[in-house]
UniProtKB/TrEMBL annotation:
CDD domains, per database record: HTH_ARSR (cd00090)
Entry keyword DNA-binding: yes
Signal sequence interval, chain numbering: none
Protein's UniProt name: Metalloregulator ArsR/SmtB family transcription factor
Organism: Thiopseudomonas acetoxidans
């Protein structure tokens, strides 16, 4: 990373903090498949709608997702596909680390 202002670094840290919750990561992975409403997300993630709404609010506040009203429903989708790509990249790194650790103890 090139030199960045303290404000920019705070924004980057806030972005990663929004990604630091397993439920939010699960939501982002689901939204990588398409757009869903709160009820659909809750059902697919096995959480209450209230819990999912709280996490969606955090993701929306940090610009990771957008919401779009369609009639009486609100649908959520990723703001930028690079967020999904970032999550996938980190997942692959962790999978490799776990594989190496398993081999070390085999």
């Amino acid at each position: 990373m090139e030199k960045m202002s303290p404000h920019a670094l705070e924004q980057i840290a806030a972005y990663f903090k929004a990604l630091s919750d397993p439920t939010r990561l699960q939501i982002l992975r689901l939204l990588g498949e398409g757009q869903y409403n709160v009820g659909e997300i809750a059902q697919r993630c096995n959480f209450s709608s209230a819990n999912i709404s709280r996490h969606l609010s955090i993701l929306n506040r940090h610009g990771l997702i957008t919401r779009q009203s369609q009639g009486t429903h609100v649908f959520y989708q990723l703001t930028d596909e690079s967020t999904y790509a970032l999550c996938e990249m980190v997942c692959q790194i962790i999978e490799r680390q776990i594989s190496v650790q398993k081999q070390a103890f085999a």
